[in-house]
Structures are given as structure tokens and as C-alpha cells.
Amino acid sequence: MKRPSLTVWILIALLAGVAFGAVFPGPAKELGLLGTIFLRLIKSIIAPLIFATLVVGIAGTGSIKTMGRIGGKAILYFEIVTTLALVIGLAAINISQAGVGIQLRAAGAAASSSLGTFADCPNR
Fold first, then answer.
1. At what angle do helices 64-96 and 32-61 cross, to 10 degrees?
2. Which domain holds residue 76?
3. DSSP letter, residue 121
4. Is residue 72 part of a domain?
5. Are 12 and 5 in contact (CB under 8 A)?
6. Residue 39 to residue 45: CA distance in whole angstroms
7. Counted domains in the chain
8. Cα 29 to chain center, whole Å?
9. What pTM was estimated for this model as a whole?
10. What is the pLDDT of residues 56-113, one digit of tens each?
11. Euclidean distance between CA atoms 102 and 99, whole angstroms
């Protein structure tokens, strides 16, 4: 029988975590600290990993001319895709007219709205 791939193991762990949290919510909340630590460790690895990948990639080309060409293409691609995203976003908002008719209040007026405050909540 073939061993499950890493993706399958990750999905199994994800489902096991969801099931554990649904069945045992108390201990699951206490284990939340482990999840926070894990995510912070992952975040601390990302920057050095990207830096090392870039250094190895640049060193592997061996030519400044090649790197300049790749850099120029990357900047051109970024500019084109960013402009396209801006045009699509502006077209979508102008066609859908999202937000038309919404009355925004000043920050001081929002606190005295008819929704009340946290102190008014009955299940505190």
C-alpha cells in the first residue's frame, strides 16, 4: 500500500483538530497557545527562507546581465498586473455602486448609536 502524501497528512490533522475542538472545546481552547506558538515559528522562518531562496537564485544565474533582464521582466509584470487589478477593481465598484446610500457618522456619534454598548449586552 502506498504511503499517504504530506498533503493528505495535513488534511487528516486538520480534520482531527476540528473534531477535537468540537468534542472537547475546553481543552482545545487551552491548546490554542500551541497553535499561536506554531504560527509565530512559521512566521519567523518565512523571511530567512525567502532571503536564502533569492540569494541562491541570484548566485545561480552567474550573470549580472541575466539578473537585470529577469528583474526588468519582474518589474514590468508587477506594473501590468497591478494596473490591471486597479482597472478591474474600479470598474467593479463603479458598476455595482457598492456603498451608495450608506450614511457614515463621526467617531463620537457612533458610540451613541441605537445599537448600544457592550455594557448593555444581557449575557455578560
1. 130
2. 63-94
3. -
4. yes
5. no
6. 10
7. 1
8. 22
9. 0.44
10. 888 888 788 888 888 899 999 999 999 999 999 999 999 999 888 888 888 765 555 5
11. 6
